[in-house]
């Protein structure tokens, strides 16, 4: 029986076959060439409208898209970019109306390829001498893992970076030294113990880590074995991570009377009752203006994302935004011209001054991130780049489900007082059952 991914891929192939017959600008009109890549001729600057769809890349409106593509509009005035709204990718596949470009992140690339949506851009990259060597190395390394024969399925254009933001007011209140760059998780948990206190009816929480994949992905841990036939959630590294959660939640005051143990960004920014919060720099950057507008600004700063003691110098996992061209696009040359423009030095410098961190492997440029917004003026922004992004294992179709089992394991540990070995064994059993169910579909 066809698997759920294979069935969705079949739908994508149907779209591909039907639309490829239409021909179009630069298209060969054959399914094979559409799947393999792009007619390697340059965009001829004729008027063209490109449809862009946001798939979890933080482009939420036409205004957002226009801001991102301002350098493209300046270089190619005949390219009009239109934001696709009020629909989903599944609906577009069913309606046989895919956009020209999908903006997404590496986290979702595996699923998109399973739906037969991406095309290989390596030919165009070579044809136009696009230098991927100037980009963040780990981003390029991860992208290459998705192609067994050198295929490149997208152009990375913006980095995300792990960061730990902390409330200096709380550390001052309890006379505790501030966090520092390059701390280990063990050191952070012990520091959290010192600022987890109750005062005047308010319980302050020293640290909230979030769901288990925050740590497991930073530790570069897979959720299944190399054959993707067995869950691997009871390994020593997983036991190490869950042991850290156990120590954290054992601090009096972290788990409240209602068994709440996981605190969100609003608890840090709005309620201001969490002292340290590991987060993404892109997400933090978009939230800070709201904090100022609400008149709730406070004394905060950032340090590098904590490392594991046996993986010094590595922070949160690699995460970047990228642009993919769909196989059914009738304007592939124009689409490539547009997304190629996003990684020129001029475009990257302009982007980096706003709210999107450069993908260029340029440490000095990264230190200028968001300089136009002045959100990090006087902050330890440079410190967050003192660690490198951790590499990721190969993505699989089971990742999301396995992470949900790990999340349930943490909950069982906290709310039912189960030990680490028990909750991980239960999570692995759920994982193996899930793999078995999928294999039967």
Mass-distribution shape = globular
CATH superfamily of the largest domain: Periplasmic binding protein-like II
Strand percent estimate: 5-15%
CATH architecture of the largest domain: 3-Layer(aba) Sandwich
Strand order of the largest sheet: 2-1-3-12-4
Helix percentage range: 25-40%
Q: Any idea of the CATH topology of the largest domain?
A: D-Maltodextrin-Binding Protein, domain 2
Poorly predicted ranges:
1-40
Mean of all residue-level pLDDT scores: 89
User: Could you say which structural class the secondary elements and strand pairing correspond to?
Assistant: alpha/beta
What is Rg? 23 Å
Tell me, what is the CATH class of the largest domain? Alpha Beta
The largest pleated sheet is described as: 5 strands, mixed
Distance between the termini: 6 Å
Give the helix tally: 19
Q: What's the total number of strands?
A: 13
Number of domains: 2
List the helices and strands and how they pair.
Elements: H1 4-20, H2 31-36, E1 48-54, H3 62-68, H4 70-75, E2 79-83, H5 89-94, E3 101-105, H6 109-114, H7 122-127, H8 137-144, E4 155-160, E5 162-167, H9 168-173, H10 185-194, E6 198-199, E7 202-203, E8 205-207, H11 213-218, H12 236-249, H13 265-269, E9 274-280, H14 281-293, E10 300-304, E11 314-317, E12 319-325, H15 332-341, H16 345-352, H17 363-366, E13 388-390, H18 399-415, H19 420-440
Parallel strand pairs: 1-2, 1-3, 8-9, 11-13
Antiparallel strand pairs: 3-12, 4-12, 5-9, 5-10, 6-7
Would you give an account of this structure?
With 441 residues, the chain is of the alpha/beta class. It folds into two domains: 4-159 and 319-384, Periplasmic binding protein-like II (D-Maltodextrin-Binding Protein, domain 2); 162-316 and 393-440, 3-Layer(aba) Sandwich (D-Maltodextrin-Binding Protein, domain 2). 40% of the residues lie in helices and 14% in strands. The chain is built from 19 helices and 13 strands. Helix 18 (399-415) runs antiparallel to helix 19. The N and C termini lie close together (6 Å).
């Amino acid at each position: 029986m066809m698997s759920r991914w294979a069935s969705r891929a079949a739908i994508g192939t149907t779209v591909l076959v039907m639309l490829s017959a239409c021909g179009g600008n630069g298209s060969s009109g054959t399914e094979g060439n559409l799947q393999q890549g792009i007619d390697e001729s340059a965009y001829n600057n004729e008027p063209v409208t490109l449809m862009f769809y946001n798939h979890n890349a933080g482009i939420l409106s036409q205004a957002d898209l226009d801001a991102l593509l301002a350098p493209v509009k300046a270089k190619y005035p005949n390219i009009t970019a239109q934001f696709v709204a009020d629909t989903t990718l599944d609906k577009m596949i069913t309606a046989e109306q895919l956009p020209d470009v999908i903006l997404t992140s590496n986290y979702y690339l595996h699923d998109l390829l399973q739906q037969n949506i991406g095309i290989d851009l390596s030919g165009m990259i070579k044809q136009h001498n696009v230098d991927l060597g100037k980009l963040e190395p780990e981003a390029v390394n991860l992208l290459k893992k998705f192609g067994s024969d050198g295929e490149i399925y997208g152009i990375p254009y913006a980095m995300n970076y792990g960061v730990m933001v902390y409330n200096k007011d709380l550390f001052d209140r309890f006379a505790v030294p501030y966090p520092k760059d390059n701390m280990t998780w063990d050191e952070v948990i012990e520091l959290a113990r010192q600022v987890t206190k109750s005062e005047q009816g308010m319980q302050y929480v020293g640290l909230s880590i979030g769901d288990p994949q925050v740590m497991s992905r930073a530790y570069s841990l897979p959720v299944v074995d190399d054959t993707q036939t067995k869950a691997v959630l009871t390994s020593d590294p997983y036991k190490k991570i869950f042991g850290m959660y156990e120590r954290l939640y054992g601090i009096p005051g972290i788990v409240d009377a209602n068994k709440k143990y996981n605190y969100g960004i609003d608890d840090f920014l709005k309620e201001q009752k969490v002292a340290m919060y590991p987060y993404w720099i892109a997400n933090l950057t978009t939230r800070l203006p709201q904090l100022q507008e609400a008149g709730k600004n406070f004394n905060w700063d950032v340090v590098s994302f904590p490392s594991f003691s046996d993986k010094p110098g590595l922070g949160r996992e690699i995460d970047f935004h990228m642009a993919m061209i769909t196989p059914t696009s009738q304007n592939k040359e124009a689409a490539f011209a547009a997304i190629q423009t996003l990684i020129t030095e001029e475009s990257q410098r302009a982007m980096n001054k706003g709210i999107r961190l450069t993908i260029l492997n340029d440490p000095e440029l990264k230190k200028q991130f968001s300089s136009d917004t002045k959100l990090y003026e006087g902050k330890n922004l440079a410190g967050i780049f003192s660690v490198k992004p951790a590499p990721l294992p190969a993505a699989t179709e089971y990742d999301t489900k396995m992470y949900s089992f790990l999340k349930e394991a943490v909950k069982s540990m906290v709310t039912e007082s189960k030990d680490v070995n028990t909750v991980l064994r239960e999570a692995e059993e759920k994982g193996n059952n899930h793999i078995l169910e999928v294999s039967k579909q």
